[in-house]
Amino acid sequence: MRFDTERYHQMFKNIFGTFGTRLLNALCNFITLWFGTHYLGAEAWGIGGIVLVDVSLLLIGVELLAGPGLVYFTPRKPYRTLFKISYTWSAMVAAFYALMMFVFSFIPTKIGFIPEGYHGLVLLLVFIYSLHNFNLNTLLGKERIMTNNLLFIIQFLTQMSSMLVYIFVFDIRDAHAFVFSLLTGYVVSYICGLTQIWRYLGDKGDDSLMPTIKEMFRFGTIIQLTNMVSMLNKRLSFWIIKGFWGDAQVGIYNAASQVAEAPKIIGQSIAMVQFSKISNLSDNDKSARITVQLLKTATIFTALSMLVICLIPTSVYSWVFTENFAPMRAVMIALAPGMVFMSAHTVFCHFFSGVNMPKHNLYAALVGFVVTIPALYLLIPTLGMVGAGISVSITNLAIIIYQWIIFRKTSKISAKELLVTKHDMKLLVSEIKSLISSSTDKQ
């Protein structure tokens, strides 16, 4: 299968830039982790982590109308309409959360969902991040990938540097240093984002709000339900391992999962660019062709990355994570096929979202859930953590089989076109050489 190589070249540049951004973010997260654990302490760092999880959970409600669905709707709806809906919805959801917190404050048995004294900060973080996220998603919808990446870089660099300022300049040595740094990063990147999206608010045209809200709500609900089912698929293994083998085995499995999932930024980087491109196309055949080529790219690079991870000797993992974590390598070998399948799953997901068929992502997640339960209960009691890793691979295989069946029905792509050809490899090598040459010339 052949398609416009110039289009692929531009997408590959965007993918490379996005991947580099994610790697830089991972480095900054590690630096932040080091300073946080050394200068704030375990308890403060734990509170900061809980606050971050609370913000992520509360954003589920916000993202029904102000989330990833904006990437799809930005090329199709007047910008001012999306702006009004998203800002109004974010404010309404934040106000609803505030009301619920006020009501719960009168309940004698307090629900420890948010750490004491951080309720106002959590609400502010949710609201500011939702506005910042609007900028990021609509810039993706406008295919301004590099601007999106730049705003993301501003966000996490500001977070890291401001935390150091709060610790060493203002001498804040509790969780507030981390939480304030999150807020600073969101505010600064939001303001920078406003300078990039402000011109679109002057575009002519305005849709009636209610039909647009209904359409966005349907799209957003399916995406959020998919995310919730996928999260349950992932976490179910933790609960079952704990029940049969105890907390220590959960800790080892969690560490192995974190290392094995590192290559997923490859698929995520590719899928983000893919989603942006496909959302701006009206030709599903072109979208399918782009998807297949990017699917091959994602699986090739993820497979190579997983091969490297699996070849690392057990002694290295023991040295880095202590002897207690020596079994990690066996778990990661069991997880390896699942991680490759996950990269394909991510690309398929963004295809279905980009062509307004997100329901198939939800159905795929439900297929995975149906497969996960028996696989976990059959494999974990006898094989422990390795059984959990095998179940992840089986589940992800079942998911992409379902996605492939639907993909084939909705496109003109045959199974033969999934095979990696010499042309694919030449194109990939050519793009890598071009990027290296371009980087060298700039230096």
Describe this structure in words.
This protein has 443 residues and is mainly α. It has helices spanning 5-39, 42-66, 69-73, 79-104, 119-141, 145-168, 176-197, 209-245, 247-260, 264-279, 284-311, 314-321, 328-354, 359-383, 385-410, 422-442. Helix 1 (5-39) runs parallel beside helix 6, helix 6 (145-168) packs antiparallel against helix 7 and helix 11 (284-311) packs antiparallel against helix 13. It starts with a helix and ends with a helix.
Summarize the entry for a quick read.
By secondary structure, this protein is mainly alpha-helical. 82% of the residues lie in helices and 0% in strands.
Q: What is the SS-derived class?
A: mainly alpha
Largest sheet: none
Helix content class: over 70%
Number of helices: 16
List the helices and strands and how they pair.
Elements: H1 5-39, H2 42-66, H3 69-73, H4 79-104, H5 119-141, H6 145-168, H7 176-197, H8 209-245, H9 247-260, H10 264-279, H11 284-311, H12 314-321, H13 328-354, H14 359-383, H15 385-410, H16 422-442
